[in-house]
Design brief:
Helix 1 crosses helix 2 and helix 4 crosses helix 5. This protein is about 50% helix and about 10% strand. It is built from six helices and six strands, in the order E-H-H-E-E-H-E-H-H-E-E-H. It starts with a strand and ends with a helix. It folds into two domains: about 70 residues, no CATH class; about 60 residues, Multidrug-efflux Transporter Regulator, Chain: A, Domain 2 (Orthogonal Bundle). With about 150 residues, the chain is of the alpha+beta class. Strands 1-3-2 form a three-stranded antiparallel β-sheet.
């Protein structure tokens, strides 16, 4: 029946969630609700009901929400871990300390693509070999600047 209506409790049972989640789905506009009957002369308290047709949309929304939650958890587990173990990776704070620079400067260099890096787990990672080349180049440039002109 396309016009079938459900109580909150029955909708929660069919979706496999609690009644509080049904209220959340209603708040987000995922479930469609019919207003309570206008006939107030009945002694039985009238309640709003839920369209049975909107349950499929609610199931899809719940699956999407669970997928997003799993993805956030996966990213949280990766945070602070290097992209792989084939190379030695340094975070921006370590590169900044090696080069005698600020973390903001290193991050700016990476974003401007002047310094090779990989974004993984919510932060930038620089291979140690690249950081050593950058530090050596900066030291060479500073030494050249201090030399008196010939």
């Amino acid at each position: 029946m396309p016009g079938q209506r459900l109580t909150y409790r029955e909708a929660a049972r069919r979706l496999g969630v609690g009644e509080a989640t049904v209220r959340t789905l209603l708040r987000h506009g995922v479930l469609e609700q019919t207003p309570p009957p206008a006939d107030r002369s009945r002694r039985v308290k009238a309640h709003a009901s839920i369209h049975v047709d909107s349950l499929d949309r609610a199931r899809a929304w719940l699956v999407e929400r669970e997928t997003d939650r799993a993805e956030r958890e996966r990213r949280r587990e990766q945070h602070g871990n290097p992209p792989d173990y084939d190379h030695v990776w340094l975070d921006t704070a370590t590169v900044a300390a090696m080069a005698g620079l600020t973390v903001n400067w290193v991050t700016w260099q990476i974003r401007e693509e002047r310094m090779p890096a990989t974004f993984h787990g919510g932060q930038y990672w620089v291979r140690r070999e690249h950081a050593e080349v950058i530090v050596a180049a900066r030291a060479f440039a500073e030494r050249a600047d201090r030399r008196p002109p010939a």
